[in-house]
């Protein structure tokens, strides 16, 4: 080892120059992390594959400015030098440096770190008079040459740099080591990687523009971090998260504080930040620091909404003044990828003749316009584009950004679906080849290794009950009588996903990132590759499968639990039933069980009797369990979103009266029971580090709407406890109109808190309670194919079982802190999944109604129910139309001051008049008399679409009669509406897509040689599997939404 001294001239983020002298040790052996290493390097961890055409070594400038391109997972064999990484750390700050470190850690990215400055033969000391940049470039080049020699010339090495002098100087020095520009590299090696090309274009454009920035100040400077910290400590400043009011995005934002223990009750509803100067470049979600303004400058928030909301008018109603402040600094930016729309080019857009700067409008109304420099301004008109923000200087009215990728033309189905995904930070790239190879690894699939597994194949009659056509069967059941009928044994057997998905494997990382399967209106994105979810893990009928089982031994008479057994098993499901079939068997109706079709009549009868008996026993147990929970106060709720996941009718989020079969509840009850007992087990074994799910009781004030609405109809809702609430909801039934009870349950759902995953160490035991299910402990164990939480729980349970002594060494568990971080991540992803599902449903509604003329098309007219009279100055009636599941306000007063007046036949028109609001109804008075709109009245609405081009379209409802809607057409089954709606929109989009494809087919394809420059030489195993998956998606009607319960 050689010791030298190294002098660093660093420039800190704040611009100070620092001179640092460090001792520097050089070694001969520094790992190369290449699988073609000839020198026996100690290559722990990630290594670069050997079957590539070259490795690529980016220069410092490339890593600093173009890291995003290197983040593309298709680029393989990337060697990051220590020189480049340190440069990122020093010049770009922690955020960017962490991104680079995460990239290096993530096994899904094929890149490694080479400690070139510790390698004796690649290190070059800085020469006198040599500029830092030149020296760094020389270091990186020297590292590239070292690689080529170290790998004995078996791998070509390409250094990429934006320094043209370096290209001239180095490119011909060594054969096998190429030095080229980023653009040349992409063009020669990755001609088909359009995303990378686009990104290169937009980043280099943005870099050029940056140099020509003006210097007139538009905002005050942010205070330095030390000053902010001291100010927060002394109480002069307040720290919080900025939330922009989406109806008044230009002017109104609130700071919400995490720490509500703040004694100042004035602040409990947050601090208002009014206007963009006070907001001082802070954006939605940023962690900011505010200073309160003097009381004389406090303002209220604007409360009135009128038709065409969003346009600000002065002189509207304001609430009483709130604490009002201005942003003095930003602790943490919450920048993400944004979808923007490039507006039509108008004279006013370009500031000068040569300027390519465009003010793009973000899809999210809360985000300010973003200035993008591009040469494609014309081509991108009317397109939705993903952009990233680079900076927002105090001299600039708008943030500066660059485009990342073009999604497509605004308004097209695929563009809009992608927009929804990106806006919710949902990344669902295709599963990689490496992942799929890992999943079908034979050592995991060979069925002869059952060590430590209990074999239930002969002893237990196991069956599954799912919606028709369900492929990913993650739960099965068994029930049998023991000890001559004195005991009953109930069994729940769940797919043993963690047997196949090893912790830390590529598949595991991807599943963890996704955290859940995403269900949109017309498609789904699986958490696990199809080879696992629909085959290896899926508990299909007639084949041997691994399971995680819970077996309860119950007293046959009292059904009290004697014993519980948890463990790994091997099962063979005898019947794959669907709900309708199971219910028919229970009802004693004549049925055809497919598994028995081939048998002789005697054998068939025996087997059917066996199955019937098992189903009856199961129903008996489930009834008992349900009654037990009912006594504790379990709630049965209904809601648009909740129903969407529970739907077995093969509609997407159909909010139609469903005739629930008892067998639905039976299965759900057994799953709830298993989840509960597993929760108890892991909580008892790991009091501080188990993953549970809690459902906090709702805040009483959220029930006001529910209580008032019910009262208007003569019902009393008691919200003092979940039990009282459940009982009073059961009572609130209007025999004339079943919709009333459903609407009340919908309102109850809306008042509920969100159920959350958490680590047991972060909460006191009394906080573990699940309010909705009335259970003291709960978790998710029964759907590991669709939810990552269940995978975590399976792993915890496995360790808990192992700790009981019999099997093997115990693995280190995640700490309380790590587990809580995981819980937060899953909670966040679940929220995103829910929002995306809701947005996609609204998208389909809009696409459907956009195609029709609301004035002439009868399908645009529907029945709706008034479900609330809001307690504010808003003259709107929230209504709900069950046929299409559409919810929204109707306006009773317009801009011109006219009101809705109903004639003798109920038909409505705009007339000048006045409006009065009462607790349970609104009346309008005009020259033709007065009209009344009561809570729960059925009215007729016309549905149209309000298009906004840059944002999501919105459904617009207009009251056309204050009487119920009577269709002139024969009434179609109500449940059909939503289903057809989705089908039709998909059909139209497919036609458009086909036309576009035909057009694209005429374009020249890439030559074979061009394609062979790509780095991966292995055949694409994935594409084959993906095709199969896509087949399944297309046939969505056959693939039900979610088979199990939510809760
Ligand atoms: Zn090596």
From TrEMBL:
<feature type="domain" description="RNB">
    <location>
        <begin position="453"/>
        <end position="803"/>
    </location>
</feature>
<dbReference type="InterPro" id="IPR012340">
    <property type="entry name" value="NA-bd_OB-fold"/>
</dbReference>
<dbReference type="Pfam" id="PF17849">
    <property type="entry name" value="OB_Dis3"/>
</dbReference>
<dbReference type="GO" id="GO:0019899">
    <property type="term" value="F:enzyme binding"/>
</dbReference>
<keyword id="KW-0694">RNA-binding</keyword>
<keyword id="KW-0540">Nuclease</keyword>
<dbReference type="Pfam" id="PF00773">
    <property type="entry name" value="RNB"/>
</dbReference>
<dbReference type="Pfam" id="PF17216">
    <property type="entry name" value="Rrp44_CSD1"/>
</dbReference>
<comment type="similarity">
    <text>Belongs to the RNR ribonuclease family.</text>
</comment>
<keyword id="KW-0378">Hydrolase</keyword>
<dbReference type="InterPro" id="IPR001900">
    <property type="entry name" value="RNase_II/R"/>
</dbReference>
<dbReference type="GO" id="GO:0010467">
    <property type="term" value="P:gene expression"/>
</dbReference>
<dbReference type="GO" id="GO:0016075">
    <property type="term" value="P:rRNA catabolic process"/>
</dbReference>
<dbReference type="GO" id="GO:0008859">
    <property type="term" value="F:exoribonuclease II activity"/>
</dbReference>
<feature type="region of interest" description="Disordered">
    <location>
        <begin position="304"/>
        <end position="323"/>
    </location>
</feature>
<keyword id="KW-0460">Magnesium</keyword>
<dbReference type="InterPro" id="IPR033771">
    <property type="entry name" value="Rrp44_CSD1"/>
</dbReference>
<keyword id="KW-0271">Exosome</keyword>
<dbReference type="GO" id="GO:0006402">
    <property type="term" value="P:mRNA catabolic process"/>
</dbReference>
<dbReference type="InterPro" id="IPR041505">
    <property type="entry name" value="Dis3_CSD2"/>
</dbReference>
<dbReference type="InterPro" id="IPR022966">
    <property type="entry name" value="RNase_II/R_CS"/>
</dbReference>
<dbReference type="GO" id="GO:0000177">
    <property type="term" value="C:cytoplasmic exosome (RNase complex)"/>
</dbReference>
<protein>
    <recommendedName>
        <fullName>DIS3-like exonuclease 1</fullName>
        <ecNumber>3.1.13.1</ecNumber>
    </recommendedName>
</protein>
<feature type="compositionally biased region" description="Basic and acidic residues">
    <location>
        <begin position="310"/>
        <end position="320"/>
    </location>
</feature>
<feature type="region of interest" description="Disordered">
    <location>
        <begin position="993"/>
        <end position="1012"/>
    </location>
</feature>
<dbReference type="InterPro" id="IPR050180">
    <property type="entry name" value="RNR_Ribonuclease"/>
</dbReference>
<keyword id="KW-0963">Cytoplasm</keyword>
<dbReference type="GO" id="GO:0003723">
    <property type="term" value="F:RNA binding"/>
</dbReference>
<keyword id="KW-0269">Exonuclease</keyword>
